[in-house]
Amino acid sequence: MTALFDVTGKVVCVTGASSGLGRRAATVLASAGASVVGVARRAEDLENWKQEAGGHTAAVSADLSDRAKLAKTVEEVSTPFGPPQILVHAAGINTRQVADEVTPEGWDITLTLNLTIPFFLSKAFVPAMREKGWGRIVNFASLQTERAFPGGISYGASKGGIGQLTRAMAEAWSEDGINTNALGPGFFPTELTAAVFGDKERAERNAAQTCIGRNGELEDIDGPLLFLCSEASSYVTGQILMVDGGFTAK
Length: 250
What we know:
The protein is an alpha/beta fold. The protein is built from eight helices and seven strands; from the N terminus they run βαβαβαβαβαβαααβ.
Protein backbone atom coordinates (compact mmCIF):
# COMPACT_ATOMS: atom_id res chain seq x y z
CA MET A 1 0.00 0.00 0.00
CA THR A 2 2.93 2.35 0.68
CA ALA A 3 3.74 2.38 -3.05
CA LEU A 4 0.42 4.10 -3.71
CA PHE A 5 1.79 7.27 -2.10
CA ASP A 6 5.31 6.95 -3.51
CA VAL A 7 6.76 9.97 -5.35
CA THR A 8 10.34 8.69 -5.50
CA GLY A 9 12.08 9.94 -8.61
CA LYS A 10 9.32 12.32 -9.63
CA VAL A 11 10.26 15.86 -10.58
CA VAL A 12 8.21 18.47 -8.71
CA CYS A 13 7.79 22.23 -8.95
CA VAL A 14 6.38 23.99 -5.88
CA THR A 15 5.61 27.70 -6.07
CA GLY A 16 5.58 29.73 -2.88
CA ALA A 17 8.25 27.40 -1.49
CA SER A 18 9.95 30.03 0.67
CA SER A 19 7.34 30.07 3.44
CA GLY A 20 4.13 28.65 4.88
CA LEU A 21 2.31 25.74 3.29
CA GLY A 22 4.35 26.02 0.10
CA ARG A 23 7.56 25.51 2.06
CA ARG A 24 6.00 22.62 3.94
CA ALA A 25 4.84 21.03 0.69
CA ALA A 26 8.26 21.37 -0.92
CA THR A 27 9.98 19.87 2.12
CA VAL A 28 7.56 16.95 2.44
CA LEU A 29 7.88 16.02 -1.23
CA ALA A 30 11.67 16.20 -1.08
CA SER A 31 11.64 14.02 2.05
CA ALA A 32 9.45 11.53 0.17
CA GLY A 33 12.09 11.08 -2.51
CA ALA A 34 11.06 13.56 -5.19
CA SER A 35 13.41 16.00 -6.91
CA VAL A 36 11.92 19.35 -5.97
CA VAL A 37 12.37 22.77 -7.53
CA GLY A 38 11.15 25.48 -5.17
CA VAL A 39 10.05 28.76 -6.71
CA ALA A 40 9.54 32.03 -4.84
CA ARG A 41 10.48 35.69 -4.97
CA ARG A 42 12.75 35.78 -1.90
CA ALA A 43 16.07 34.19 -2.85
CA GLU A 44 17.50 34.09 0.68
CA ASP A 45 14.45 32.37 2.14
CA LEU A 46 14.48 29.89 -0.74
CA GLU A 47 18.12 29.06 -0.08
CA ASN A 48 17.30 28.53 3.60
CA TRP A 49 14.53 26.14 2.58
CA LYS A 50 16.90 24.26 0.28
CA GLN A 51 19.45 23.81 3.05
CA GLU A 52 16.72 22.70 5.46
CA ALA A 53 15.06 20.25 3.06
CA GLY A 54 18.20 18.55 1.77
CA GLY A 55 17.64 15.76 -0.76
CA HIS A 56 17.39 16.56 -4.45
CA THR A 57 16.33 20.18 -4.36
CA ALA A 58 16.88 23.32 -6.41
CA ALA A 59 15.76 26.91 -5.99
CA VAL A 60 14.49 29.37 -8.59
CA SER A 61 14.01 32.95 -7.49
CA ALA A 62 11.27 34.55 -9.58
CA ASP A 63 8.51 37.12 -9.28
CA LEU A 64 5.58 35.09 -10.58
CA SER A 65 3.37 38.17 -10.73
CA ASP A 66 5.53 39.40 -13.64
CA ARG A 67 3.92 37.49 -16.49
CA ALA A 68 6.46 38.82 -18.98
CA LYS A 69 9.12 36.68 -17.26
CA LEU A 70 7.08 33.49 -17.08
CA ALA A 71 8.84 31.83 -20.04
CA LYS A 72 12.21 32.42 -18.35
CA THR A 73 10.89 30.90 -15.12
CA VAL A 74 9.64 27.83 -17.00
CA GLU A 75 13.11 27.37 -18.50
CA GLU A 76 14.85 27.77 -15.14
CA VAL A 77 12.49 25.32 -13.42
CA SER A 78 13.18 22.71 -16.11
CA THR A 79 16.97 23.01 -15.94
CA PRO A 80 18.00 21.15 -12.72
CA PHE A 81 16.05 17.87 -13.16
CA GLY A 82 14.05 18.24 -16.38
CA PRO A 83 10.40 19.33 -16.77
CA PRO A 84 8.28 18.63 -13.69
CA GLN A 85 5.68 15.88 -13.62
CA ILE A 86 4.07 17.34 -10.49
CA LEU A 87 3.09 20.98 -10.01
CA VAL A 88 2.04 22.42 -6.66
CA HIS A 89 0.71 25.97 -6.92
CA ALA A 90 1.08 27.31 -3.37
CA ALA A 91 2.16 30.90 -4.14
CA GLY A 92 -0.47 33.44 -3.23
CA ILE A 93 -1.29 36.89 -1.93
CA ASN A 94 -4.11 38.33 0.15
CA THR A 95 -4.28 42.15 0.17
CA ARG A 96 -7.19 42.10 2.66
CA GLN A 97 -8.76 45.19 1.08
CA VAL A 98 -12.44 45.65 1.93
CA ALA A 99 -14.75 46.05 -1.04
CA ASP A 100 -14.95 49.85 -0.91
CA GLU A 101 -11.15 50.12 -0.77
CA VAL A 102 -10.10 47.61 -3.43
CA THR A 103 -7.59 49.18 -5.80
CA PRO A 104 -7.01 48.14 -9.42
CA GLU A 105 -3.41 47.33 -8.50
CA GLY A 106 -4.43 45.15 -5.56
CA TRP A 107 -7.08 43.39 -7.63
CA ASP A 108 -4.70 42.76 -10.55
CA ILE A 109 -1.82 41.30 -8.54
CA THR A 110 -4.19 39.08 -6.56
CA LEU A 111 -5.88 37.63 -9.62
CA THR A 112 -2.59 37.30 -11.48
CA LEU A 113 -0.67 35.47 -8.76
CA ASN A 114 -3.53 33.41 -7.32
CA LEU A 115 -5.40 32.45 -10.50
CA THR A 116 -3.67 33.37 -13.75
CA ILE A 117 -0.22 31.96 -13.00
CA PRO A 118 -1.46 28.50 -11.89
CA PHE A 119 -3.08 28.10 -15.29
CA PHE A 120 -0.33 29.43 -17.54
CA LEU A 121 2.50 27.77 -15.61
CA SER A 122 0.61 24.47 -15.83
CA LYS A 123 -0.09 24.99 -19.53
CA ALA A 124 3.63 25.43 -20.15
CA PHE A 125 4.47 22.05 -18.59
CA VAL A 126 1.52 20.02 -19.88
CA PRO A 127 3.24 18.96 -23.16
CA ALA A 128 6.06 17.22 -21.24
CA MET A 129 3.53 15.55 -18.91
CA ARG A 130 1.43 14.49 -21.90
CA GLU A 131 4.48 12.93 -23.51
CA LYS A 132 5.01 10.78 -20.41
CA GLY A 133 1.29 10.08 -20.06
CA TRP A 134 1.36 11.11 -16.40
CA GLY A 135 1.09 14.29 -14.38
CA ARG A 136 -0.31 15.76 -11.21
CA ILE A 137 -1.34 19.39 -10.74
CA VAL A 138 -2.31 20.55 -7.25
CA ASN A 139 -3.86 23.99 -6.94
CA PHE A 140 -4.40 25.74 -3.63
CA ALA A 141 -8.01 26.61 -2.95
CA SER A 142 -9.17 28.18 0.33
CA LEU A 143 -12.01 28.50 2.79
CA GLN A 144 -12.85 31.49 0.61
CA THR A 145 -13.45 29.17 -2.33
CA GLU A 146 -16.63 28.29 -0.43
CA ARG A 147 -17.27 31.21 1.95
CA ALA A 148 -17.19 35.01 1.87
CA PHE A 149 -14.88 36.62 4.44
CA PRO A 150 -14.59 40.30 5.41
CA GLY A 151 -11.82 42.07 3.51
CA GLY A 152 -11.52 39.17 1.11
CA ILE A 153 -13.32 40.20 -2.05
CA SER A 154 -10.36 40.03 -4.45
CA TYR A 155 -8.79 37.04 -2.67
CA GLY A 156 -12.17 35.30 -2.54
CA ALA A 157 -12.76 35.95 -6.24
CA SER A 158 -9.37 34.43 -7.06
CA LYS A 159 -9.95 31.37 -4.88
CA GLY A 160 -13.49 30.92 -6.15
CA GLY A 161 -11.91 30.97 -9.59
CA ILE A 162 -9.43 28.29 -8.51
CA GLY A 163 -12.35 25.97 -7.83
CA GLN A 164 -13.62 26.29 -11.38
CA LEU A 165 -10.11 26.37 -12.86
CA THR A 166 -9.38 23.04 -11.16
CA ARG A 167 -12.47 21.46 -12.72
CA ALA A 168 -11.73 22.96 -16.14
CA MET A 169 -8.09 21.84 -16.12
CA ALA A 170 -9.22 18.35 -15.15
CA GLU A 171 -11.68 18.31 -18.03
CA ALA A 172 -8.99 19.46 -20.46
CA TRP A 173 -6.07 17.22 -19.50
CA SER A 174 -7.17 14.18 -17.46
CA GLU A 175 -7.55 12.01 -20.56
CA ASP A 176 -3.80 12.47 -21.04
CA GLY A 177 -3.09 11.09 -17.57
CA ILE A 178 -2.73 14.56 -16.04
CA ASN A 179 -4.96 14.84 -12.99
CA THR A 180 -5.76 18.25 -11.50
CA ASN A 181 -7.09 18.70 -7.98
CA ALA A 182 -6.95 21.35 -5.28
CA LEU A 183 -6.22 21.45 -1.57
CA GLY A 184 -8.41 23.80 0.45
CA PRO A 185 -6.60 24.60 3.71
CA GLY A 186 -8.43 25.92 6.71
CA PHE A 187 -6.64 28.17 9.20
CA PHE A 188 -2.95 27.25 9.36
CA PRO A 189 -0.19 29.32 11.01
CA THR A 190 1.54 30.96 8.01
CA GLU A 191 2.62 34.43 6.95
CA LEU A 192 -0.73 34.96 5.23
CA THR A 193 -2.61 34.25 8.46
CA ALA A 194 -0.25 35.97 10.91
CA ALA A 195 -2.88 38.59 11.75
CA VAL A 196 -5.42 35.86 12.52
CA PHE A 197 -3.14 33.87 14.82
CA GLY A 198 -1.87 37.07 16.41
CA ASP A 199 -5.39 37.62 17.76
CA LYS A 200 -5.86 34.85 20.33
CA GLU A 201 -9.62 35.35 20.62
CA ARG A 202 -10.08 35.24 16.86
CA ALA A 203 -7.91 32.14 16.53
CA GLU A 204 -9.93 30.41 19.23
CA ARG A 205 -13.19 31.31 17.46
CA ASN A 206 -11.88 29.81 14.26
CA ALA A 207 -10.84 26.63 16.07
CA ALA A 208 -14.30 26.35 17.61
CA GLN A 209 -15.85 26.62 14.14
CA THR A 210 -14.17 23.37 13.06
CA CYS A 211 -15.61 19.93 13.73
CA ILE A 212 -12.29 18.75 15.16
CA GLY A 213 -11.95 21.69 17.55
CA ARG A 214 -8.55 23.08 16.60
CA ASN A 215 -6.81 25.04 13.88
CA GLY A 216 -4.47 23.38 11.42
CA GLU A 217 -0.84 22.47 12.03
CA LEU A 218 1.62 22.36 9.15
CA GLU A 219 1.94 18.57 9.24
CA ASP A 220 -1.80 18.22 8.65
CA ILE A 221 -1.19 19.01 4.98
CA ASP A 222 1.32 16.17 4.43
CA GLY A 223 -1.01 13.22 3.85
CA PRO A 224 -3.53 15.01 1.61
CA LEU A 225 -0.67 16.45 -0.45
CA LEU A 226 1.04 13.09 -0.98
CA PHE A 227 -2.32 11.57 -1.89
CA LEU A 228 -2.95 14.11 -4.65
CA CYS A 229 0.65 13.92 -5.95
CA SER A 230 0.84 10.14 -6.24
CA GLU A 231 -0.76 7.05 -7.78
CA ALA A 232 -3.13 6.95 -4.80
CA SER A 233 -5.26 9.60 -6.56
CA SER A 234 -5.19 8.01 -10.03
CA TYR A 235 -9.01 8.08 -10.28
CA VAL A 236 -9.46 11.44 -8.57
CA THR A 237 -9.52 14.60 -10.66
CA GLY A 238 -11.30 17.94 -10.69
CA GLN A 239 -11.85 17.83 -6.94
CA ILE A 240 -11.27 20.21 -4.03
CA LEU A 241 -10.08 18.42 -0.91
CA MET A 242 -10.83 20.69 2.04
CA VAL A 243 -8.18 20.25 4.73
CA ASP A 244 -9.95 22.40 7.28
CA GLY A 245 -10.84 20.22 10.25
CA GLY A 246 -14.46 20.35 9.15
CA PHE A 247 -14.71 24.17 9.12
CA THR A 248 -16.81 24.15 5.95
CA ALA A 249 -18.92 21.26 7.21
CA LYS A 250 -20.55 23.39 9.92
